[in-house]
Amino acid sequence: MYHALYRKYRPKTFGDVFGQDAITTALRNQVERGHIGHAYIFTGTRGTGKTTCAKIFAKAVNCLSPRAGEPCGECEICRGLEEGSILDVVEIDAASNTGIDDIRALREEAVYTPTNCRYKVYIIDEVHMLSNSAFNALLKIMEEPPAHVIFILATTEIQKVPATVLSRCQRYDFGRIPQPVIQKRLEMVAEKEGIELEPAAAELIAQLADGALRDGLSILDTCASAQQTVDEALVRRMAGVTDRGYLFDLSRALQAKDASGAIQLVAALREKSIDMKRLCEELIAHYRTVMLVGIGADELGVSLSAEDRQRYKELAKEIPLAKAVGGMRALGDCLDRMSRGTDPRIELELTLFALCGAGAEEIAPARAASQPAQPQSRPVQTAPAQPQAAPQPHPVQQPQQGGTTPAQQVQPCGFWQAVIELAREKDPMVHGFLVGSNGYLQGNRVLVDGSELFLNFMKTNQDSARRLKDLIEQASGHRYAIGPYRRPQAAQPTQSKAEETLRQLQQAGVPVEYR
């Protein structure tokens, strides 16, 4: 059976891991000195070695004869873990096991000592996908873990992991792998596989990988399946990457204020099925590169071939820095309008036309001038010198609840607490929103008096709204529609009682002094 290159060449020891030297050294030292923690969290973008290092660490702490902190790869434990015959290292996909029941099962299993190994290791991938209740259940065992258990959590979105969990873990941040390191690894793999990989092709693949070695190996695998010799043209064709010369042509047309030429270029690109939003994003990145090259900071977050770097240096001499910055801002606003459902092609054409008709630095003032003027506030009228008769009070009309007619009376929902209790058992996420809320009946509807966050969540998440209706039906035996409850605003009196008394005294001739 054929194995993909990224699987076939997955590192077996810390020494085989590329681009994460500081992390692999720290983990190797812990194993060598016997200073093993009970919980670790590995964070970073995809393809940077988080899961790979977790598996190597799990082998190293259980290896019968480790060598300088590395697993030997020859003992029965190393071979068993590699083949999958030893089950003391458990890998869990949190994206598929998000619920509290899955973590409860983990807690029940963790108390038992390992069968073959010294440590029972749980590797939880994409841990940020766990629900709040599952995190709470995991936190309980992480507070007082058994001596034989090690947790290794891996995530690409560290900001979604609760601080209470983070504070109990040793954190390791996996950075993007540098382009030269990826290129070197690709050339090594190509040599072992007998693939003729041209240097320009290796450089382009490393650039497209964007710091993820796994992505680079996958692109090489795809190209090698087409032909044995992998050149730059093949990489562009197989990866769906075209020559970016059209970005230079567009920016030069904008600099020359050639609106007709810029619009024609957009039309030609659209005929080639290039997405307008993607083109807008590419133009923003293009102007960013022009800006960075123009200020001599092109090494900061820009992956360029030697040829492209020279082209950008020449373009930066033609386009002023203010024009590049203004172009980024104008195109960023264009991308924002595209996301609201406006026709992407029209929005892009209008933005390019504006960039041609005025300097990029003039776009923001022009846009501000085109906004409709805000109505000016009316001047406050001074009160008349002579006291006026008090106005007769008018009956205050109660606002409508949830968009229904005033004829339908609102009354407290007697079974609302039962709905909350059902949610606690069957849907912890909905229960979290319902805590502290109240329910009201209005005809055939249940109006929920909850936070604005909850109301917006129900409005945009149809599945949760349907589950809430099911919970209401189970608690009441009747199928209700749901809606928001709007609290009636209390009518503000025109004058307070004290002010009315003072006015009457003033009318009677009593001198009144206001402080």
Helix and strand topology:
Elements: H1 5-8, H2 21-33, E1 39-44, H3 50-62, H4 76-83, E2 89-93, H5 100-110, E3 120-125, H6 132-143, E4 149-155, H7 163-166, E5 170-174, H8 179-193, E6 196-197, H9 199-209, H10 213-224, E7 229-230, H11 232-238, H12 245-255, H13 259-271, H14 276-294, H15 306-318, H16 321-338, H17 344-357, H18 363-370, E8 411-412, H19 416-426, H20 428-434, E9 438-442, E10 445-449, H21 452-460, H22 462-476, E11 481-484, H23 497-507
Parallel strand pairs: 1-4, 1-5, 2-3, 3-4, 6-7, 10-11
Antiparallel strand pairs: 8-9, 9-10
Helix pairs in contact: 2-3, 5-6, 8-9, 8-10, 9-10, 9-11, 12-13, 13-17, 14-15, 14-16, 16-17, 19-20, 19-22
| Biggest pleated sheet | 5 strands, parallel
Structural class: alpha/beta
Helix content: 40-55%
Overall mean pLDDT: 81
Residue fraction in strands:
5-15%
Overall 3D shape: flat
End-to-end separation in angstroms reads 92 Å
Low-confidence stretches: 358-407, 491-495
Count of extended strands:
11
- Going across the biggest sheet, name each strand in turn: 2-3-4-1-5
Radius of gyration: 33 Å
Note the total helix count: 23
Describe the overall structure.
The chain is of the alpha/beta class and 515 residues long. The protein has helices spanning 5-8, 21-33, 50-62, 76-83, 100-110, 132-143, 163-166, 179-193, 199-209, 213-224, 232-238, 245-255, 259-271, 276-294, 306-318, 321-338, 344-357, 363-370, 416-426, 428-434, 452-460, 462-476, 497-507, and strands spanning 39-44, 89-93, 120-125, 149-155, 170-174, 196-197, 229-230, 411-412, 438-442, 445-449, 481-484. A five-stranded parallel sheet has the order 2-3-4-1-5, covered by helices on one side. The protein has a four-stranded mixed sheet with strand order 8-9-10-11, with no helix packed on it.
